[in-house]
Amino acid sequence: MRTVLTKLGFYVVTAWAAISLNFVIPRIMPGDPADNLINQFHGKLSPSAIRALRVLFGQKDTGLWHQYLSYWHSVFTGDFGTSYAYYPSKVSDVLGQSMYWTLVLITACTVLSFVIGTGLGMLAGWKRGTWLDSLVPVTTFLSSIPYFWFAIIVVLVFAITLKWFPLSGGYAVTETIGFSGGFVSSALYYAVLPALTIVVASVGGWLIGMRNMMVTTLSEDYVRLAEAKGLSRRRVMYHYAARNAMLPSLSGFAMSLGFVVGGSIVTEVVFNYPGIGTVLFKAAQSADYPLMSAIFLLITVLVLVANLLADVAYVFLDPRTRES
């Protein structure tokens, strides 16, 4: 229990530092959303109109400390003001509309690629030297291909040439968003190509990492002792070798889950998928600092929570972490 509380205190301090940096960085960058909008009018706005724009975008004439306290109030209330790129929508509304798409697609693909890659890596490490080792160079080659290039090839082959799947979007324009059978089937149909791109490009990293750790773990004394005791090969593989070999992959998986909200930006942009990755890309193009700040904050918090859960899981999976 003391170990868990110590880690929790560490992550609380880390969260405070990360959130504070998220407040400072946009404010030391040149320009802001109001300036970009003002520059578009080439000096045609009156001073009162300029002040009104700054107030509209939450840039009141207050001190930095007061802005910092207001920022923490926004963190706890979830009110980050008005989005510049999606004006006059609130930042919270934009995130709420796009988060659903990213959570469903990217989370499912991340879990699927982790399960497939870790499972194949476990088998390849257990049966090293067999035909399973041929999966390593193939998946490594696929994972080394840039996301955007692989996504473009997938679109060219399956959407343009074969016309099996739609070119872009998240659902058919004839469907209404809801939990109806038509909308769900349409959303799944449109998600096939983005999901294929993410899974194929991610499996290789999980496979080679698990395979190498499995080979290293098999040379440990406790694995040899389990084999010498006459335990079944299945029990040795799962309970002794794989359980310890997958601990490093567990940290990587937690990091991947934490970055789910950020989405696979390139993949979402190529497929024009209505997720947070596309929203972040448009926010960066429009210098929408309130929206970018909210997305970065969300990513930061989720990464910290995912790593905390991974550390807690380590405590229960590996007794050595509980030693003083």
UniProtKB/TrEMBL annotation:
Cross-referenced InterPro entries: MetI-like (IPR000515), MetI-like_sf (IPR035906)
Report the subcellular localization.
Cell membrane; Membrane
Please list the GO biological process terms of this entry.
transmembrane transport
Q: Does the keyword Transport apply?
A: yes
**Where mainly found?**
membrane
GO cellular component: a single term: plasma membrane
Membrane topology according to the record: Multi-pass membrane protein
- UniProt keywords, alphabetically: Membrane, Transmembrane, Transmembrane helix, Transport
- What are the ABC transmembrane type-1 domain coordinates in residue numbering? 99-310
> Which Pfam family is one of this chain's hits?
BPD_transp_1
Q: Any transmembrane segments, and where?
A: 9-29, 99-126, 147-167, 187-208, 245-271, 291-317
Q: Which domain of life is it from?
A: Bacteria
As for family, the record states: Belongs to the binding-protein-dependent transport system permease family.
Name the UniProt record assigns to this protein: Peptide ABC transporter permease
